[in-house]
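hi! just following up on the protien thing from before. the input was this:
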Amino acid sequence: MAEEQTVSLVDVLEENEELEEEASAVLAGSDSDLCSYPQGYVKRQALYACSTCTPKGGEPAGVCLACSYKCHEGHELFELYTKRNFRCDCGNRKFTELQCKLFPEKDELNTQNKYSQNFFGVYCTCSRPYPDPDDQVEDEMIQCVVCEDWLHGRHLGVVVPDGVELQEMICESCMNNNSFLWTYTAHLSVPAAAVEVKGEPNTNVPKEEEKGDDVMEPSCKRSREEAEPGCRLKELQEIGQKRVQSGAVFWPSAWRSKLCSCNTCKERLSAAGLSFLLDESDTVLAYENKGKSSEQRHQGPDPLMSALDNLNRVQQLEIIHGYNDMKTELKDFLQRFAAEGKVVTSEDIRQFFEQQQSRKRRRDDGRFYSP
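and the predicted 3d structure came back as:
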């Protein structure tokens, strides 16, 4: 008889802890109780778009985490993950029939907010929803650090390198719009091989003629010849080493610190709206780490983990069985909300656990016994 595969309670709890950390990474950096509007254009925060209040064809709008809970309960929301330099729109002029419950005194519009197709629930160069019910291909979505759109790995024009979660990506369109960035690719970027996906032409990305290193942005006030002495960008241009200028570009950890920060380059980045590239704390990884640290400070030591040493094997197996039953039922419960695009509220969770408590205890003949 084959030996029954077992799993320890520690394994179960560690797996659950990983899932909680992923959620904390995005949500713990944002306040779930207070509208972020008084903070102005927040450096980075978790955002949502409400298709119930601002349907496709209307004006795009984004709401903060707290407003998604308190003002848009039961609405169809699109999760936008995080966006930079955004001010909560909830209840402003774009919401004709809704007033923000948390901070109603808002300006009519947030003129510095930037919007994209994401605010209507579509992503990538293929402009499809995520998850896409008509797409049977398993493919990860990767966010461009410049336009902050999410793109399918197969639509990037390059083979996605290993360890992509530790890197940042700039899509081909953003690279071409800021052609001076190509100068850095041969020296700073992760080597990538071009990829051709048959049967899926990427028709939404205009093919531009290859731009040389001498091409600068029209808004730049100084020419290459007038660049300051010691300009790293100019030094790299003079080396002349090039990489094929096509496809998305992946950048390794800490690549931003190696960009030139002379006055000329700062002006160029500012004119292109890319000053944030000189700020390493702007990265999603930095935001996630901050969220995890904040969550850990609030939680303190886990009393359940601390009590494990005091449980015998019978007690541990009993807890594992009950925990796995509860986790399966909770997953099914939450999937119903995900399928309907609804936000899970604290009241929904309370009702779930009330239903759990009202169920009968397991029958005695179903208990586990130690060998």
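Residues 307-366 form one domain.
The mean pLDDT is 79.
cheers
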